[in-house]
Amino acid sequence: MKRKGFFIVFEGIEGCGKTTQSLLLYEKFERKNYDVIHTREPGGTEFGEKLRDLLLHSEELSPLTELFLFLADRVEHIKTFIKPALCEEKIVICDRYYYSTIAYQIGGRKMPEQFVIQLNKVVVNNFIPDVVFYLDIPVDSAFARKSKIKL
């Protein structure tokens, strides 16, 4: 499957503004009549939205279960949504991608680094974005934004 479109990803900690900035870029492209779509991980497909709900609202999941749910979402998201859109020469803007899984599962869940990286490599299969915007803000600011408290 040959890629013809352009794949953009927004990354960063929770509350840094990924969704806001990715939607602003999407709206700008749309106003200029580009063929653009916005998606997110987890989510982006019907299956992905079900997994997102499980991930966000389940009791404590084991780190391994959580990792496999993120990976299952990504496989379907790439195969059924992102790749087809790029083959139709669309611009795809995604709120999170595999970088978040690596950061959260290794840094947050303390899973073995090589294990998480290797599984992500298998799932992504060299399917990397054309550009990644990493939004970096202080953790205190992010949590304040997330709880809508201004510093």
Describe this structure in words.
The protein is 54% helix and 15% strand. It is of the alpha/beta class and 151 residues long. It has a four-stranded parallel sheet, with helices on both faces. It is globular and about 45 Å long. The N and C termini lie far apart (48 Å). The model has no long low-confidence stretch (mean pLDDT 92).
Rg calc: 16 Å
β-sheet strand percentage: 5-15%
Alpha plus pi helix count: 6
What is the makeup of the main sheet?
A: 4 strands, parallel
Please state how the strands of the largest beta sheet are arranged side by side. Answer: 2-3-1-4
Low-confidence stretches: none
Strand elements, count: 4
- Give the H and E element order: EHEHHEHHEH
Give the integer mean of the pLDDT values.
Answer: 92
Content-based structural category:
alpha/beta
Q: Helicity range of the residues? A: 40-55%
Form type: globular
Distance between the termini: 48 Å
